[in-house]
Amino acid sequence: MGTIHMVDLVSQYKNIENEIQSEMLKVLNTASFINGPSVKDFQTAFEHYLGVKHVIPCANGTDALQIALMSCNLNKGAEILVPSFTYVATVEVIALLGYRPVFVEVYPDTFNINIEDVQDKINDKTAAIIPVHLYGQCSNIKPLIEIAQKHNLMVIEDTAQAIGANYTIEDGNTKKAGTLGNIGTTSFFPSKNLGCFGDGGAIMTNDDDLAKKMRMIANHGQIKKYYHDSIGINSRLDSLQAAVLKIKLKYLDDYCVARQTVADKYDKAFGESSEIAIPKRSSFTSHVFHQYTVKLRHAQKRDLLRDYLASQGIPSMVYYPVPNHLQKAYTDYGYKEGDLPLTEDLCKRVVSFPIHTEMPVEQQDLIIDAIANFFVEQ
Length: 378
What we know:
By secondary structure, this protein is an alpha/beta fold. It contains 13 helices and 14 strands.
């Protein structure tokens, strides 16, 4: 049956090996390693896929968030609303730039940003909201944008886990995750739904002025070489990674469908379980299942379950065991245990099962049977 992986990148690569090698050889044969034609080709293809005016490729998803925030010209000490239940990168850039992260709750069934808590925490210092489209489905962006417009706030979508997801707008049409706020950001880390063979990222916007500013920031603050109009950074998507992404973008929708098929099977297996709460799928968004994350009824069983699965050769992960507001790095912001009880409870209960685009049915059956057997034996 083979080794079970959380994400099987080798099998994914083997299915498109010839295409990938052909594109990478073009880069090698022309030595166009920085800002080569493959970067522009991918940028154009990604703009078309997303239906967005501007894509600014960059070195990684964290840089994408930093460049996005730098372009907003916020006052030092400005407050930015961000969920505590997310990967640290989203919070990290806020602190690095001298802003203050204000941690907000998420909904315990979708794991996405809690709109009511956002409303409660807006004050005169609030300058932006960063909704994280966690695990593969969109936060409810429309009411967040309405709140932001009312209070003159920026909305920066962290779309690293939900690229390819569709958000349904009022007329029944859809827009891609990352294209609804002022700015969207994403990561092309290898395990993402659209991943390269190293680090990579991108920023998306429909705002011409923001796009111009972000391109300049990503290139040392210059438009014309050696003439620096603003403080910037050096953040480029290299040509080899763009070559990989250009090919994989063609298959992104297929990858999303494959992940949804795996998720459907998990849902069917655990939907009636008294021990496991399956992830809720919001009505206003598709779910592309970067992770398949469940919530256990009994938190004390999580480590036991993970140990049992490991003994059967089945990996699992906890995304995330410690909320950001309780991380040691952010203690200076004055948060304490009990400040975000919904988030803190999730960190004790969530566990993610293997899901990827090439998962064999027999492997998933083995995983499902092992999980069921664990709860029978408890």
